[in-house]
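Raw record, unedited: Sigma-54-dependent Fis family transcriptional regulator
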Amino acid sequence: MSRRISLTEASRRAPRILSRGDSKLLDEGAPPTLSDLAGALQFALGDGRIWLNDDRMVMMQTASLGHLRHEMIEAMGMDQTRRIFRQVGWNQGIHLADVIAQRFQQQDLTAALAAGPRIHTMEGFVKVTTKRFEFDVARGHYHGEFYWHDSSEAIEHLSHYGVCDCPVCWMLIGVPSGYTTRLLGHPVIFREVECTGMGAERCVIIGRHAEAWGDDVPELAEFGLDTPRGRGKPWKPPVDLPKADEDSASTIQGRSPAIMRARRLIERVGGYDEPVMLLGEPGTGKELFARRLHEIGRRPSGPFVAVNCAMFDAEDTQSAMKTLDAQIERARGGTLFFNDLLALPRALQGHLALRVQPVEGVRSDYRIVSTCSGQPRAAVQSGAFRADLFYRLSLLPVMLPPLRERRDDLPMLIEHFLARHSRRHGRPLRKIGGPALDLLLRYDYPGNVRELSNMIERGVIFAEPAGDLEISHLFAGLEEMPEFIERLHASGSIMRSTASGHVEGRTMQQIETDAYSRALSAARGNVSAAARDLGMSRAQLDYRLRKLGLTGQRDTGPVAGGTRGDRNGRPPS
């Protein structure tokens, strides 16, 4: 006899319908849970960065944000400040939706929408309780009700202005609007119908598709949704090969200050014929910059002749000179590119110095671009490289930064190389797994951009077709791994990878205690020396040692040269 089940249970067991859903039919523990989301938050201690998946985050006191809000209201008025804060929240919601789409690719849109309140809570602005939401993408329908508890924005507004006669959670209300609109592909507007800032016990939030709010929907103009209904396409997990992007030989990826400065210098010297020398570590993209320089130079249609300076035979000088002369002739009307200039044999350096010697009143018919990966000044001082040739070719030097100094470019570069190598090898891939992405963001890349490209290409080849790239696919065991990987656990403690590979929970106090203990041990118990190593005053370190109960590790003898004190001679307080 068949067992009867309810319609609700049948809905739970049926294949998920991407275009329609109801939070009542979603399991409470449906991923991504709050713990799953916390795993995507990574603190790169000592690196000055916090990552939420591949989005850089910052920690900021709510009081500072409240002060900023107060100053803006006083300077430009309540209405303008409200619009700006709602737009900031809208953009934040868009980014959070992208995090869910990239890191957690459920086949269920209901679960993706349910993750919004969880990630909003995790950020610390407010505690969100979902009462209910339902949607139907085909009909353009959405309705949701939520409760907000302890809104940081409302608390700050109350502290500056007291009880208000209108809702005050402006930035917070923009977040679910952006988040839900991004996932559903049609405008969804959230509003506060009750607010703590108005004296209510909690904030009550209602979200509806834009048409349900009637004709008066000023948010559409604020969020840029008032043109062709602002409709997009609902999110769904990608299964196809990524679309081709701009991927010419001279595409330079990155927007960090260091790489932007190098790009500006290249653009500034592009219209000149004088020699350019590209300096930087191996793998920083010097040939890429050289090709870009050729494209924006005076002769972009001319030849680009690359010369590997390490290929010449130092023993057969005559043959090497003929080869070099032939390359120079080929470059006429274009660019002559010397790769790894310091590897050029000494005998050829003199020959090249004569060939590139400028003639008064005669414009050269080719441009020279060279690269140096080593220490050119040290090579000149030691006599390994001719000074006259070096100073001639380094008239316009451009320094390219190593990848570890442009970490903000990592998300863009990872996405670029994943799309590039997926297309090249015909391997459709969903994404890079969360732990693998965390490690890519922490790795130091001694081989720079070239190493990152190789790692992504390796992962594309090693991973299962249409599967995720995991740590074992990307890292071959040849890399020098970070000493520890840390991230935030759902409990609030720091997760640290031990040498054995096991993860243990560590609080900030434990990490701080270890740091002070190591410094004291290295200084043989001398607190003043330990304080100098830590960049602290003696008084500051004394206070922290007493607070953490580490006074037993302190030195007890007098400091050489006089009374014990900090490095400025002041006695400890």
